[in-house]
Amino acid sequence: MSSRRGMSRGFGSRGSRRPDLTRNLTSTVRSRAETPPPPPPPFGPTIDSISSRAVLVEEDAPTIQDAEYIASYNWLQGKSPIILVPGSPPAWAPPVEDTKLKPDSGDVFRDVNAARHALYPLEPAFRALKAMEPQFHLQSVDVVGCGSTIGNLLRFAGSQSKPFRFDVDVVGDTVLFVRRENPPTELITGLQGYGHTFPEAYTAWDSDVRNSCSHQRLVLYDFGGLKFLVRSETDGYVKDPGLDLLKMAQATEPQNLEDALGSVALGQSVVDAGQKLEVRLQGRKIPQSLIFDLKTRASYRQFDMDEILPRLWVNQTSKFLIAYHKYGVFENPKVEDVGRQVLDWESRNSDLLARLHAIVKRIVDVVRDSKDQQCEVSWDGEGLLRITKQIGEGRKALPSDVI
């Protein structure tokens, strides 16, 4: 299957939307990314281990409740780390005629957040949240994660063998799951299919967010009594003629930049190579109901919706586009509403989701009680999930001024 940002069956951020993004970076970053990655760092002492089958689950099957889009941002192309807040995803804009597209080529980052802001990949999300919701109380949230980290735990709960490793940090009572790549600028090479050229031809960035390369969103919801704040990358949105997006943007835009950003000193956090994260208030809020994800596939290969429904559930996305092609020609692809299918998947997988909830609850309880609150969660794809202590100084998820 061809996937749009390289992570064909995964969750979370799937690399850059534009295949030439890496060619806009410095040659130093590029050469580092092409160098064989260093061996992963050793694991620290084990704090706890979890069996997906032996974990204690509650009798009532949990479901997602009170889902709410709360913040967003775009990564801007270029050599410096710049985000636009709230930004907006590319709009669905199919051409008048379906023409033959060239297949994908070039390389993309596996995780655009880590590649563009390696030291604190979660920082842009919190800068955007502070700008859009200055009064948001983070301590009301139990878990902050992304589609990748939550998706990894969901696969572990279902015994789908795919190893993973991510960092855990605790800020107050809030537990942060931080995706990690080795190295942060890891590339996906040898792209195949049309997962990049298709959205280039069938979607377009709005004028106020032109030169963006990725749209990231934060969704808040309750899952079995645990408050989740989940970041994910979004493929696009469908314009709704019944909504005046300009008026909506004006109604929700902060009137004063300093007031909107509050005490957060934007642009003062040093990132890799001396670069600083710059935040620009630009773009417009797009309702979650208009957001869609997409996949491309050859017409002779039928797409199984169970490949995407777990991701749509984690990210609370109700629209999806499966674009079939014949040798690069896509025939009248359309975005479909799959909200009912997402709910049906949730209902059919109540046992799986009960295990996921129990696993997350166990991790949260263990790391909150641990004296070493910088930990790691890992799974080798076969045995027990392990919570281990980070070796060395520990990797903070956020800079001190954000904390």
UniProtKB/TrEMBL annotation:
Residues 1-11 have a biased composition (Low complexity). Residues 35-44 have a biased composition (Pro residues). Residues 1-48 are annotated as: Disordered. PANTHER family: PROTEIN CBG02620, START DOMAIN-CONTAINING PROTEIN. This is Geranylgeranyl pyrophosphate synthetase. It comes from Hyaloscypha bicolor E.
